[in-house]
Amino acid sequence: MKPELIAPCGINCAVCVAFLGYTMSGPKRKHPCLGCRSLDTSGRSLSRKKCAFMKKHCDLLANDKVTFCFECDEFPCQHLKKLDDGYVRNYNMSLIENLNSIKKIGMKRYLRDQKKKYTCSQCGGVVSVHTNRCYTCSIH
Ligand SMILES: [Zn+2]
Question: Is residue 54, in this structure, part of any structural domain at all?
Fold first, then answer.
């Protein structure tokens, strides 16, 4: 669990199925995602990859004016609420809650909590928030 893997919108890339290198339906990805804050090496210039969902809607994120959505006056904005709704419904995780926690307890403690929450009880690997699977010990 690393601070640079916490996306502006509160998603922890470390527990994301794409970052772990798999698709939702199971197979391994050819190109695992490097995280929402990773460098975008697909383009010509080595620019920072923008937050995948929010970049289309948010000038502040697109121009690196904020590091996390909670720094914004409009937090939580309609776009973040929409994304949050989907996550609460489908994956039982609130991005807005995540962001409020980071703000409240700080990144260090937040990452410790995340580690506790997403560590596989069988092998100590990372359990994906999207599929509820540990890709260290449950790979077939
Ligand atoms: Zn495991």
Answer: yes
16 in a domain, yes or no? yes
- Give distance in angstroms: CA of 34 to centre of ligand 1: 21
Backbone angles phi, psi at 72, to 5 degrees: -90, 145
User: How many domains does one find in the chain?
Assistant: 1
Separation of CA 4 and ligand 1 centre (Å):
23
pLDDT tens digit sequence for 88-139: 999 999 999 999 999 999 999 999 999 999 999 999 999 999 999 999 998 6
Q: Decide if 35 is inside a domain.
A: yes
Q: Report the phi/psi class of residue 42: left, alpha or beta, with left for phi > 0 and alpha for psi in -120 to 50.
A: alpha
The model's pTM: 0.87
Ligand 1 centroid vs 20 CA: distance in angstroms?
A: 13
